[in-house]
Amino acid sequence: MSPFLILAALAAPTTAADAATQDSIVVTAAREPLDAESAPVSVTIFGSETMQALGLPSATDLLRLSPGVSVATTGPRGTQTQLRIRGAEANHTLLFVDGIRFNDPAAGNEARFELLTTDSLSRVEIVRGPQSALWGSEALGGVIAIETADPIGGTKASLLGEYGSFDSVRASAQFAAGTDTAGVSGSAGWLSSDGIDSFGDGGENDGFETFSASLKGIVRPADGIELGVAGHWIEGTSEFDGTDPVTFARADTLDETRNRIGAIRGWAKADVDGWSLQGDLGWLGSTNRNRLDDEPLNRTSGERLSAGAQVSRTLGRSRLTAAIEHQAEDFRARDQVYFGGTDQDRGRHLTAFIGEWHARWSEQISTDLSVRHDSFSEFRDATTFRAAAVIEPTAGWRLHAAYGEGIAQPSFYDLYGFFPGSFAGNPMLKAESSRGWEAGARWQSGAFSAGITGFSNRLNSEIVDTYDPATFLSSTANAQGKSRRRGIELDGSWRLSAAATIGVNYTYLDAEEQKTSGTTPIRELRRPRHSANLIANGTAGRLSWGATAGYVGKRGDTDFDFFPSPRVTLDDYLLASLRLGWRINDRIEAYARIENAFDADYQDVVGYNTPGRAGYAGLRIRFGD
What we know:
The radius of gyration is 24 Å and the shape is globular. The chain is mainly beta. The model is unreliable at about 1-25 (pLDDT under 50). β18 (about 320-335) and β19 form a beta hairpin. About 5% of the residues lie in helices and about 60% in strands. It has six helices and 36 strands.
């Protein structure tokens, strides 16, 4: 075990973000927002001050600092990025952006983390463990909710410009203008880079470009009444090295993917005499276009229409919630390579009924019970359950325990395939399901807090790839065995003063899969057994600073360049970043930052290189309140 890992374990600890947000509201740990101390499950929150202090441009750079989260990027920034919570699959994390379900129905139900930047965000929340009893499919491993600025309460704006290594350019603008009863906020950001050669064999660099914009408006015409609308637009272009069309081995190619996601949500809320009523309507559309040397290969597109209504009633120390949701998804695929052989037009829908009972039995004990029934158009219906309790036996101590169940729909790829003659889908698949528990304790005294959580989850009916040597066809099937993920998370923080807040966390993960019942389980790929993070930031006079260090332990991967696709071990690595800012005056801050400060040579996916040490410099200008 490395010295850094031992230090993290001994410090026993929460992230610096957590220390600064002890009074924060958690929005996805229950159907109604809770204060952080009442949340019955494990939550990490990053606030705007922490994000600005660290200066990390990509959302995945921030998310990987949370306990229990592992990230795998297929080469340089901008390429496919998969995030796993507590060893769950990449499509087992549900992403909300300003309350909009943001998983891409045209990309295997995965969230497109490679397209998300931090410049427009005011808050990031990570809830770990199965949450399907609250939020349905894809919330099997956990939920991530990100939010843009609140437009209520003042007028302010900021501009950012940055230039650095790999001819990278970063520019963004944000504004919020409002009173106590109405307001509008918006943002726009651009990030581009010439990148690096993904294979590192002397080929051309693989660059990327991402543009994002958001707009949010809220009106509160009377006490307890709120009307709102939020919209998002993201588009990105990423170059990458793919495979040789003859040997199917990795090769230095001129592949390129272009992605677009547009989404909008409207809502209305009313709180009257102990009743809370809410209605939501949302839409998301996405397109993914793949090219080789500027020649079109294929494209996929998807749409999701979501509608929901919820009512809550407070009775004494109890809050009862009932909700109904409806989702309709469409998927389309077109190709040029196979002369239309992959063309598809598919659709499906679901209707869900949710109930939750949150009770505070005394000042020391609270419980939460949730149940959800999903009626699917394409699969067997599913009912999921969650039970949780929080006990505060004495001042400074908090004990929590939860049991939860999760489900994940098969993707359109899993059901219907994509590549004719080589990969056929399986329309008989059933939804994946999991059940698990977590239990832990937290202690806080003044500026210091520390916590420990143990967890265990079992995944049933895991969707796995299959291969028939007689027909040379690949397909999918539900595994007969059970996959197991269990581990321990340690986290803690110490706020020395305004000049320094330090947080560390450590995760031990034992993740195994069993495709066939009765066989010996094997370790899951791309999941480190050991991982640890350090986050520190502070302000002293005109100087502000932020630093991170993330350790990722050894993990396995599959090398498809060789037959029969042997397993390989990827080396452990340590990523460190540092940002230093100097406030020139009340409005202008100049800063410099460095990524991969120790120039680690590492891979998240076998065969795909990642950037070395990189430096950047920029200006941030603030206006208003």
